[in-house]
Amino acid sequence: MNPAVKRRPAAGFATITLIIRRFDPDVDTEPRWQDYDVDVLPTDRILDALHAIKWDQDGSLTFRRSCAHGVCGSDAMRINGRNRLACKTLVKDLDTSKPIYVEAIKGLPLEKDLVVDMEPFFESFRQVQPFLQAGTAPQGGRERLQSSADRERFDDTTKCILCAACTTSCPVFWTDGQYFGPAAIVNAHRFIFDSRDDAADVRLDILNDREGVWRCRTTFNCTEACPRGIEITKAISEVKSAMMRSPEAVRIA
Q1: What residue ranges define each of the domains in the chain, with the CATH number in brackets?
Q2: How many CA atoms within 13 Å lie on the side-chain side of 122?
Q3: What is the pTM of this model?
Q4: Percent over 70 (pLDDT), the chain
Q5: pLDDT of 79-118, one tens digit each?
Q6: How far is residue 85's CA from residue 106's CA, in Å, rounded to a whole number?
Q7: Which pLDDT band holds residue 246 (cuts at 50, 70, 90)?
Q8: How far apart are CA 169 and CA 27, in angstroms?
Q9: Which segments constitute the 4Fe-4S ferredoxin-type domain (predicted)?
């Protein structure tokens, strides 16, 4: 929608109420709730409703978004108490007879309104060395070949878009800012089980820590929150099993 053109009411539109947890560090000492009425279609997304508020009602409302198609992961937020992507959450899938509550994801420092500081999240991601590490050059200077079965072994965890929805849905992460969190473990899994990689033991050693995989309490919040449908709890369990099989691993509980 062109932000300069206000959408005219038409058949099929309904008015919903969004109650958004606002915070302006230049003005507020604590977050506050503010409500907005918005005209939407059932097939509109919560992101569309947020755009309507920002463009037509309150230009100070602050949130992240980019691709708007569930690929970049930048618009992760809590919608009615659940971590979701605003661009993938349709109005028709929510109970619009009641207000819809929208707030920033939990466990990361709040910067403004629906925007959090993602740096602690990305620091954990970087610590697990999420890149291919091979000790030898590919034969003949060609690419490193891999069978379909070997590729399938870690296919699920390649889907991560680093939206932080899983990590910020984790009660352990909320209470322990040192915990690596599900997303970092998922991205370690992607290389631990890659047949072309030679650094699995390095990553297992990194995660064999008091703030590593053993902090997971298997609540399945992360799996439920993932907008890409990754079986995150299963991936964490597989990393734990690999660690137990590693001759150099010593469990730290």
Answers
A1: 14-116 (3.10.20.30), 119-245 (1.10.1060.10)
A2: 7
A3: 0.89
A4: 93
A5: 999 999 999 999 999 999 999 999 999 999 999 999 999 9
A6: 14
A7: confident
A8: 28
A9: 150-172
pLDDT tens profile 5-60: 455 556 689 999 999 999 999 999 999 999 999 999 999 999 999 999 999 999 99
| Number of helical H runs and strand E runs in the chain | 8, 7
Return d(Cα 60, Cα 4) in angstroms, integer: 16
Residues above pLDDT 90, as percent of the chain: 85
Q: Are 91 and 49 in contact (CB under 8 A)?
A: yes
Q: For the chain, what is the largest distance between any 2 Cα atoms, rounded to a whole number of angstroms?
A: 67
Give residue 100's identity as a one-letter amino acid code.
I
Q: Return the residue matching tokens 């992961």.
A: 73
- Secondary structure letter of residue 45 according to DSSP: B
C-alpha–C-alpha distance, residues 181 and 178, integer Å: 9
Residue 4 pLDDT: 47
Q: Using DSSP, state whether 32 is helix, strand or coil.
A: strand
Cα separation of 209 and 205, whole Å? 8
Q: Which has the closest alpha carbon to 163: 118, 108, 113?
A: 118
Place of tokens 């509109």: 44
Q: CA gyration radius for the chain?
A: 21
Residue for token pair 């730290």? 252
* Burial readout 72-96 (b: 16 or more C-beta within 10 A, e: otherwise): bbbbbbbbeeebbbbbbbebeebee
Task: Give the Cα separation of 242 and 79 in Å (integer).
Answer: 35
Nearest alpha carbon to residue 32 among 110, 123, 124, 147: 110
Question: d(Cα 10, Cα 184) in Å, to the nearest integer?
Answer: 46
